[in-house]
Design goal:
Largest sheet: 9 strands, antiparallel
Structural class: mainly beta
CATH architecture: Distorted Sandwich
Number of domains: 1
CATH class: Mainly Beta
Number of helices: 2
Shape: globular
Order of helices and strands: EEEHEEEEEEEEEEEEEHEEE
C-alpha cells in the first residue's frame, strides 16, 4: 500500500518547532525537525489474538537533540498492522512549561500514475500553496496532478480518499488530532535531483500526509499529551 522512502514509511517525521518545513527563526536547524533522522527504540511488540501486530517505539534523545529541542518531552509511535494500518504519534510534555509543536506523519503511497490519480475529501478547503510562495487559495473539486504540488490544506479533519484507477483501488485516510493535510509530489524536474527518486519516479508516488502544520500548530501543556492518529485502508474497485 505504501511505497518505502529512504527512511521507513512507518516512521514519521515530526517538526518539534513552530513552523512546518524550515524552522521559522533558525536557518541552520534541519528542515522538518530532528525526529525524522533520529534512532527510535523498540519498546514492545505484541501479536494480538485477531491476527494484528502492534509495535511501540520511543524516540531516543541525547545532547545533540537537546540543542535543537530544549524541552522535557517524550515522543512515542504506536503502530497497529492488520487489515488496516494505524499509527498514533504521542507527544507528551514531561516538563513544567508548555510548548508548541507542528508535526506530520509522512507517507509515500505507491500509485499507478499520479497524472491519473485524484484525491477526494479536500473539496472547498482553503490551502497554502508552497510552490506559489505561500499564496492561499481554495480547492475546487478533487485534487488532480499535472505539475509539482506542495500544499497545506487547512482546517480539514475529515477523511481523504486516493482514487487510483490504474491499480483499481482506493486508499482511505482517516485522521484524529489533525486539522491540516499536506499533499505533495515533486514532479519531473525536482525528482531527478533527488537521490532517492530519479527520472520518472515521481509518476509512481504521492504523499497525502496527516499533519498539524501552519496555524494548526498544537500547544501541549505541562503533564499533557497530544495524539496524532491516522489509519489507512485499501478497497478494490
Amino acid at each position: 500500500m505504501i511505497r518505502r522512502p529512504p527512511r521507513s514509511t512507518l516512521f514519521p517525521y515530526t517538526t518539534l518547532f513552530r513552523s512546518f518545513g524550515s524552522h521559522a527563526t533558525e536557518a541552520g536547524f534541519p528542515a522538518h525537525g530532528f525526529a525524522r533522522s533520529q534512532c527510535w527504540e523498540m519498546v514492545q511488540v505484541q501479536q494480538l489474538s485477531d491476527g494484528r501486530t502492534t509495535l511501540s517505539l520511543r524516540l531516543l534523545q541525547d545532547a545533540n537533540t537537546r540543542l535543537l529541542w530544549p524541552h522535557d518531552a517524550e515522543l512515542v509511535l504506536l503502530v497497529n498492522v492488520g487489515e488496516c494500518l494505524q499509527m498514533d504519534l504521542l507527544t507528551r510534555n514531561t516538563g513544567s512549561e508548555a510548548f508548541t509543536v507542528t508535526q506530520a506523519l509522512h507517507t509515500y503511497f505507491a500509485v499507478s500514475d499520479v497524472r491519473e490519480v485524484s484525491v477526494r475529501g479536500l473539496e472547498d478547503v482553503a490551502y497554502i500553496d508552497k510552490v506559489a510562495d505561500g499564496a492561499r487559495d481554495v480547492q475546487s473539486g478533487p485534487v488532480t496532478f499535472s505539475a509539482e504540488m506542495d500544499r497545506i490544506y487547512l482546517d480539514q479533519g475529515g477523511e481523504c480518499v486516493i482514487d487510483d484507477p490504474g491499480l483499481q483501488r482506493r486508499i482511505f485516510i482517516r485522521r484524529e488530532g489533525s486539522r491540516s493535510t499536506v499533499v505533495w509530489n515533486p514532479w519531473a524536474e525536482k525528482s531527478v535531483a533527488m537521490a532517492d527518486m530519479g527520472e520518472g519516479a515521481y509518476r509512481g508516488m504521492l504523499c497525502v500526509e496527516a499533519t498539524n502544520a501552519a496555524e494548526d500548530a498544537v500547544r501541549v501543556e505541562p503533564g499533557g499529551e497530544h495524539r496524532l492518529q491516522v489509519s489507512y485502508r485499501l478497497m478494490a474497485w
